[in-house]
Amino acid sequence: MTILVTGATGTLGRHVVGRLLRDGHRVRALTRTPAAAADLPAGVEVAVGDLTEPETLAAALEGARAVHLIGATGHDHAPLRTGPQITAMAAGAGVRRITVLADGSEGGLTRAVRDSGLEWTFVWPIDYMANALGWADAIRATAEVREPYGARRTASADERDVADVIATVLTGGGHAGRRYVVTGPEALTPADKVAAIARATGRELRFTALTDDQARLQWRAEGWPEEGISFMLDMWATVPGSVAEVTPTVERILGRPPRSFDRWATDHADTFRAHARNQHPVKCDMRSTST
Ligand SMILES: NC(=O)c1ccc[n+]([C@@H]2O[C@H](COP(=O)([O-])OP(=O)(O)OC[C@H]3O[C@@H](n4cnc5c(N)ncnc54)[C@H](OP(=O)(O)O)[C@@H]3O)[C@@H](O)[C@H]2O)c1
């Protein structure tokens, strides 16, 4: 069967595509700009479409029997408002199963998915370990990470584990009507993660916790727009305590423990070494957001 993967050119979606291909499935990758899909593995069919303009998705959905749908788009992770149209089109095109990357809380997307008649599963990663790639420039250049909310603990998941859960749900039975929160094996502070990167790279690294005012000054000096600065500070100020709760999802769905941040840091150590070239864009980068 053909499986349509949205977000396929992104941090998570690339792993979903890779895992499905390795398991022998036919994969169609959605992108707004084909150039973004140029480095996807051979064998992936590329479909052009925009989730915010459902009328562009007909060809992408044609012949697909399962879909992985991202529930938010844009730098500010704005919730997808076109859920009702997309799920109706998917059902009409013969799609039977859908994984939705959303927390499944009450809202338009959740209602649309529940009412769609599709075999649906919400999969929600609290936070990707790959977000730490946003520190790579600073770590390479200054051996220091400077951020506010230094005491926050997050049960970040390795994006490869999130992808494995999604691929398993898309291709196996028994997950309809479920909501899976995917985490790593432990809740870590940013300082814990920097220490793990230091161990993995053999470099001496420092984490410095900033006050909101210090963060504001730093990000202004880096050229962030006020809107982006407020978004980040508001986000961190209002993050619920549940982001530190470790879930058994990976073990239950995949039958093995989740990868640790130490493992992730070891696998990405080269990116944080002083000689490495920047290969990864800063995540949650608001600098391109217009003011
Ligand atoms: N970062 C986190 O910790 C975290 C945690 C929970 C959930 N999420 C969610 O996870 C999803 C994927 O994140 P990521 O970090 O893997 O993504 P990413 O690396 O930022 O890439 C974004 C992906 O979304 C696609 N996309 C964006 N807007 C689109 C639109 N209007 N129509 C079609 N495709 C669109 C992009 O495709 P093209 O550019 O090729 O069109 C790209 O594949 C996002 O929805 C994000 O909100 C992230």
Could you describe the 3D structure shown?
The protein has 291 residues and is an alpha/beta fold. The protein has 11 helices and 11 strands. The strands form 3 sheets. Strands 3-2-1-4-7-8-10 form a 7-stranded parallel sheet. Strands 5-6 form a two-stranded antiparallel ribbon. α1 crosses α6, α3 runs parallel beside α4 and α7 crosses α11. The site of NADP nicotinamide-adenine-dinucleotide phosphate has 27 residues, from α1, β2 and β5.
Total of DSSP H or I helical runs spanning 4+ residues: 11
- In terms of DSSP E residues, the strand content is 15-25%
Radius of gyration, taken over Cα atoms and rounded to an integer in Å = 19 Å
Name the CATH superfamily classification of the largest domain: NAD(P)-binding Rossmann-like Domain
Q: How many separate structural domains? A: 2
**What small molecules does this complex bind?**
NADP nicotinamide-adenine-dinucleotide phosphate
Structural class of the helix and strand makeup? Answer: alpha/beta
H/E element string? EHEEHEEEHEHEHEHEHEHHHH
> Overall mean pLDDT score?
93
CATH class of the largest domain: Alpha Beta
Q: What order do the strands of the largest sheet run in, or round the barrel if closed?
A: 3-2-1-4-7-8-10
Q: Ranges with pLDDT <50 over ≥5 residues?
A: 280-291
Helix share of residues?
25-40%
What is the number of E strands?
11
Morphology: globular
* Straight-line N-to-C gap: 44 Å
What characterizes the major β-sheet? 7 strands, parallel
In the CATH hierarchy, what is the architecture of the largest domain at level 2?
3-Layer(aba) Sandwich
According to CATH, the fold-level topology of the largest domain is Rossmann fold
